[in-house]
Amino acid sequence: MASRDGGRVAALSHQLAQAHQELRRQISDIRKSLGRRRLSDDVLLTHCLSFCAALTSHHQGEDDGMFSRLLRERPDLAATVANLVEDHAMISSILSRVKELADRAAGSTDAALEAIGRELDGLAAIMESHFTYEERTISEALDATATVPDWAGMVFRFDVT
C-alpha cells in the first residue's frame, strides 16, 4: 500500500507487524536454542543480549518518535499510548533481569540457562500480548501518516546477529 506522497512502499502498520514478527522469531529461536543447547553457552548469551538490545531499541523508537507523532495527530489515542508505554516499562524491567542473568550465566551451570529460559518464556508471552494490542489499536492511525517519519528506522529495522 503506497502512501499519499508515493514515498512509502508498504503501509506503516504492515512494517510494524513485520518488525514484531521478526522479534517473535528471534526470541523463539533463542528459547529453542536454550532448550536444546545447540550452540555454545557464550553464543546463546550473545544472541540473547543482542535480542534484548534490538527489542529495547524498537521500544525506544516507539516511545521517543512514533508515539509522540501519533499523539500530535491523534490525541484520542492517549490512553492507548499510555498503556503501550506502561508495557514498555514492564518489558524493560524483564529485559534488565534477562541481561543480569545472562551476565551471571557466562561459563555457569545449566540452572543459570534455565533461569534465563524462564524469563524469556514470560517475556515472550508479554510481548505477544503487547504486540497484538499495539497492532490492533494503532494500525489505522499509523497508516494515516502521510510520510515515512524519522523514527521509522528505530522502530522497523534492526539487526540482531
TrEMBL record:
Family annotation (InterPro entries)? Dimeric_xanthone_biosynth, Hemerythrin-like
Hemerythrin-like domain residues are 13-139
Q: Name one Pfam family in it.
A: Hemerythrin
Its recorded name reads Hemerythrin domain-containing protein
Q: What organism is recorded for this protein?
A: Streptomyces musisoli
